[in-house]
Specification:
Pfam families: RHH_1. It comes from Haloferax marisrubri. One of its GO terms (biological process) is regulation of DNA-templated transcription. InterPro entries: Arc_rbn_hlx_hlx, CopG, Ribbon_hlx_hlx. This protein has 61 residues and is mostly helical. It has a domain of 30 residues. The protein is built from two helices and no strands. Helix 1 crosses helix 2. The longest helix has 13 residues. The chain is globular.
């Protein structure tokens, strides 16, 4: 990603908590996690990521 632009959205505190928890479970920053979710959405106009995130954290190696 060559250039990033900051974007501000408002969400309830419990949503932020869930995002933080899920991002941590997947070993990602909150920003990276949200970007990934946007890209993997079924109707996303963006390139679909190779790895699809699920509700389950990745298995320990």
């Amino acid at each position: 990603m060559a250039l990033s632009v900051n974007m501000t959205i408002s969400v309830p505190p419990e949503t932020v908590e869930k995002l933080n928890d899920r991002a941590r479970e997947h070993g990602m920053s909150r920003s990276a996690y949200v970007r990934h979710l946007i890209n993997q959405a079924p109707d996303s106009p963006f390139e679909t990521p190779e790895v699809q995130l699920t509700d389950e954290p990745p298995a320990e190696a």
